[in-house]
Amino acid sequence: MALLSIRNLTTVFHAEEGEIKACDQVSMDIPAGKTIGLIGETGCGKSVLGMSILRLLPRNAVIRGEIYYKDQDVLKMNGDQLKRLRGNEIALLPQSPSTSLNPVLKIGFQIAEGLHLHRKTKWEQAWEKAVEMLDFLKLPEPEKRVQEYPHQLSGGMKQRALAAASITGNPSLLIADEPTKGLDAVLRAQVVGVLRQLARETGAAMLLITHDLKVAASLCDQIAVMYAGEILEQGAAEQVLKDPVHPYTKGLLASLPEHGLHPIPGYSPSLLDVPAGCKFHQRCSLARDLCAEKCPPLQVINGVQVRCFFGDQSGEPQQELHNRDLQEAAV
Q: Where is the protein situated, by its record's location annotation (predicted)?
């Protein structure tokens, strides 16, 4: 049974410009102890999905569908239930530690506060736990660091401090939102090490939201590929990243420097003006008339779930399938 189960999740923002559907009928499961990667281009709705799980969206957002955590319906929880869920059961590791840490509070306070509030731990014990967590995450001189302010720490130290604040309450699920965004290669490697340590030694499940395919490949058990609010492909990480089925996933991999740096033509559609049919068809070299008329359902192809009419179930090359009669290909 999944620790977290999402079914037909749709998140809509009501803005002056119109209705923005940031997540569209998203379904996924996060098993206990597993790391699930959510990948895709910037603006595809990845972070909105993470914030929808915790119900940390602004008032103009409407969430529909089902989110079950340990058989509890998150969308029906009241304020007190949500407070117990956030930080206690499900923790968030947000983007950019430089902006996520409070600059006027000591590192120790920011780590211990969660334990004091959520676990009702006495302040002295919570402070000791903060030192223990920094030591656990291999931060040098943890007794000194808890007395320091964020500006006194390096980027890698800030990331570890933020991770310590996130996991101090022993959550069962950690949502890591673009933890390597904007970091250089050295810091990125440090963050990956921290996340790997968290997953290995705490046993917590993790939803890793990232556009960095290398990070996803090194950390994730399963991968879900998102585009314009929809999941286009999901399955075992090794299979999705080494032998993808969906043209969009193939395009993402081809755009990497080690694969020749071949970017996908065109741009992602605006969520205010999403095309009919398959949302990717305007950029897809395999697109046919059917793709512009009808949204393909998720189907299992080669062991992964794929939202594509022209996916190959028989091992036949994609181009040969593309050249078939349209009606036959749709079946």
A: Cell membrane
Backbone angles phi, psi at 3, to 5 degrees: -65, -45
Q: What is the mean pLDDT of the chain?
A: 89
| Spatial contact of 278 and 287, defined as CB atoms under 8 Å apart | yes
DSSP letter string over 178-189?
STTTT--HHHHH
Cα dihedral 91→95→97→98 (10° resolution): -150
Task: Give Cβ neighbours of residue 222 (< 8 Å, ≥ 6 apart).
Answer: 34, 35, 36, 37, 234, 235, 236, 237, 240
Strands, E, within the chain: which ranges?
Answer: 4-15, 18-30, 35-39, 61-69, 72-73, 90-93, 173-177, 205-210, 222-227, 230-236, 298-301, 304-307
Using CA atoms, how far apart are residues 152 and 35, in angstroms rounded to an integer? Answer: 32
Looking at the predicted structure, is the pLDDT value of residue 101 above 80?
A: yes
Quote the tokens at residue 27. Answer: 């379904």
> What domains does the chain contain, in order, with CATH numbers?
4-225 (3.40.50.300), 244-330 (no CATH)
Residue 208, both tokens: 């890793």
User: In which order are the strands placed within the sheet that holds 173-177?
Assistant: 90-93, 173-177, 205-210, 35-39, 222-227, 230-236, 304-307, 298-301
Q: Are 91 and 175 in contact (CB under 8 A)?
A: yes
Could you report the per-residue pLDDT of 192-209, keeping only the tens digit for each?
A: 888 888 888 889 999 999
Can you give the pLDDT at residue 281? Answer: 95
pTM (two decimals): 0.88
